[in-house]
Amino acid sequence: MRPSGRKLSEMRAVSIETGISKHAEGSCMIRMGDTHVLCTATIEDRVPPFIKGSGLGWVTAEYGMLPRSTTSRMRRESSAGKQQGRTVEIQRLIGRSLRAGVDRVALGERQVTVDCDVIQADGGTRCASITGGWVALRLAVNQLMKAGDVISDPLVSPVAAVSCGIYAGQAVLDLDYPEDSEAGVDGNFIMRGDGQLIEVQMSAEGSTFSRDQMTELLGLADAGVQELVSLQLKAAE
């Protein structure tokens, strides 16, 4: 029995509310259970120096957790004077995941920055950030297309992410914090809507896992991502 009472292959309740930010070109609040993330997308007519003049666009991301997104207050990283390694790792993951669904030639020489701010954390914040981040990106690109600034749609496929793991000896989908903290195996699966894998992060947290278990987790993740993609497309209509 899972702590939440969910079935092994059951996602948490997911909602995506768009138009959260008045000023951002694209924005949404994604809620995956008790994990809530505000995602905004900003378009700029510039690119990093290393691709300037190439004609290619760029998508990057920043990620952060608010001080009371967790059970006890965390110190703001800005007041500490530097980002934690976890923060840097996650925002790089978000950026490269979103870029995997973008035709950078079609985007043109401009940059889209996706900011993901965790309002409340209960496991799976990076997965929620990627999933909500794509919706914010989709809405921002819609603005470019409406204005005629891009000729063809630069988003080739939705991008979504979900966690899976081995909890109490069983493969489960979409771990919340009580499961994540006790899971013998923990993994994050980032995929495109067409089924192509972007990245898989798997680790043995207390027990090793077999190839058969890996295949079972991948099957759960595929079903979960397809469910998320349906919600993304509906939200960004």
UniProtKB/TrEMBL annotation:
Protein role: Phosphorolytic 3'-5' exoribonuclease that plays an important role in tRNA 3'-end maturation. Removes nucleotide residues following the 3'-CCA terminus of tRNAs; can also add nucleotides to the ends of RNA molecules by using nucleoside diphosphates as substrates, but this may not be physiologically important. Probably plays a role in initiation of 16S rRNA degradation (leading to ribosome degradation) during starvation.
NCBIfam families linked: RNasePH
Family classification: Belongs to the RNase PH family.
GO biological process, one term: rRNA catabolic process
Domain Exoribonuclease phosphorolytic: 10-140, 158-221
Keywords: Nucleotidyltransferase, RNA-binding, rRNA processing, Transferase, tRNA processing, tRNA-binding
UniProt-annotated binding residues for phosphate: R86, G124, T125, R126
Protein name: Ribonuclease PH
Organism, as annotated: Marivita hallyeonensis
Gene: rph
EC number: 2.7.7.56
HAMAP family associated with the record: RNase_PH
Enzyme class: transferase
Oligomeric and partner information: Homohexameric ring arranged as a trimer of dimers.
Pfam annotation, one family: RNase_PH
Keyword Signal recorded: no
Membrane among keywords: no
Record GO terms (molecular function): 3'-5'-RNA exonuclease activity; tRNA binding; tRNA nucleotidyltransferase activity
Catalysed transformations (reactions): tRNA(n+1) + phosphate = tRNA(n) + a ribonucleoside 5'-diphosphate
